[in-house]
Every structure is written in structure tokens, then in C-alpha cells.
UniProtKB/TrEMBL annotation:
Source taxon at top rank: Bacteria
Annotated GO biological process: tRNA wobble position uridine thiolation
Gene3D superfamilies: DsrEFH-like
Protein name listed in UniProt: Sulfur relay protein TusB/DsrH
One Pfam short name: DsrH
GO cellular component: sulfurtransferase complex
InterPro entries from the UniProt entry: DsrEFH-like (IPR027396), Sulphur_relay_TusB/DsrH (IPR007215)
Length: 92
């Protein structure tokens, strides 16, 4: 299992590339401008089935979004640290 960290907005090709790397049972966390992905209604169609998705709550709110707008679970820094500790590999 791997943790994929997406920092760039959906407009950045690197973000798209990182999402394609995620395999079933991997986790993706969106941070910085990557949290914009969390408001996309078809986000689950961008990744393989079985990939867990999260967005960093503090970054999401800092960009002017309301928690209720997120299409995926929002986690805090402690939750992010837990993901880092549990996963064998980190891709960023």
C-alpha cells in the first residue's frame, strides 16, 4: 500500500499523473492547492476503485471552502500523520 500526496490543482498535469499511479488499497491525500479536487463531483471516477481519498481540512478551509462542500473525507494534520505512519510507501 502507498500514500499518494497530491499538492497541485486539478489543472496541473502532475496531479493527473499521480492519481493514475494510485492502485486499489492505496490512499490519496490532497493538500495545498490539491484540495480543489475535493469539490469535484466525479472525483471517484478519476482513480481506480478501492483507492481511499482524503483532503487536508485546514488547506480546504484556507481556500475558502466550507466543510460541507467536500465530496471526500476531510482529515486534520493528526489524521495525515496517521496515514504517513501506516503506509509502506509515499509517492509525492
Amino acid at each position: 500500500m502507498a500514500l499518494v500526496i497530491v499538492k497541485k490543482s486539478p489543472a496541473d498535469k502532475l496531479s493527473e499523473f499521480l492519481l493514475k499511479l494510485a492502485l486499489p488499497q492505496d490512499k490519496v491525500i490532497f493538500i495545498q492547492d490539491g484540495v480543489i479536487f475535493a469539490i469535484e463531483k466525479n472525483l471517484k471516477g478519476l482513480v481506480k476503485e478501492g483507492v481511499e481519498l482524503f483532503a487536508l481540512k485546514e488547506d480546504f478551509i484556507a481556500r475558502g471552502f466550507e466543510e460541507s462542500e467536500s465530496q471526500i473525507p476531510l482529515i486534520d494534520y493528526e489524521g495525515w500523520a496517521d496515514l504517513i505512519e501506516r503506509d509502506e510507501k509515499i509517492i509525492s
